[in-house]
Amino acid sequence: MANVLDVEFERMDGETTTLRALGEGRASKWVVVNVASACGFTRQYQGLQDLSTRDDVVVVGFPCNQFGGQEPGTHEEICSFTESKFGVDFPLMAKVDVKGENMIPLFKILSESADSSGYSGEIRWNFAKFVIDSTGEVTRFTSRDEPEDLL
């Protein structure tokens, strides 16, 4: 299996990238999260933004509309909302599926990891979080886990 840091996915501009490329050689930890603008957990954007200011951490958001239609916006609307409401300047990728037959390869790999309760498998809701270290080791967190408790 490929290192999760090297799995390609699409940015909002249609270009492809990897977590490693987004880390620009400075990151020792990546926080990957499926995000939504109209969810009860949307407030977690603030904690994710705070994490993203750490020198060794790269936060990467993947908008997803698979859970209650809570991310219906266009790329521009998503960026405008997150920037104006939470000051988000960490990278947001193209809207993706994080479960089901159209799940992107990155989330196929991430879904194989287990959270602290032992659950592995499909993403259950918005704001599931994954911390990945520089070796590609994945630690899974639930939507209820607050960003400030991840590292």
Q: Which features would summarize this protein structure in a list?
A:
151 residues, alpha+beta, Glutaredoxin, two-stranded antiparallel ribbon, 6 strands, 22% helix
Structure description:
This protein has helices at 19-23, 44-52, 75-86, 105-111; strands at residues 9-10, 16-17, 29-35, 57-63, 129-133, 138-141. It is of the alpha+beta class and 151 residues long. It has a single domain (4-149), classed as 3-Layer(aba) Sandwich (Glutaredoxin), CATH 3.40.30. The strands form 2 sheets. The protein has a 4-stranded mixed β-sheet. It starts with 8 loop residues before the first strand and ends in a 10-residue tail after the last strand.
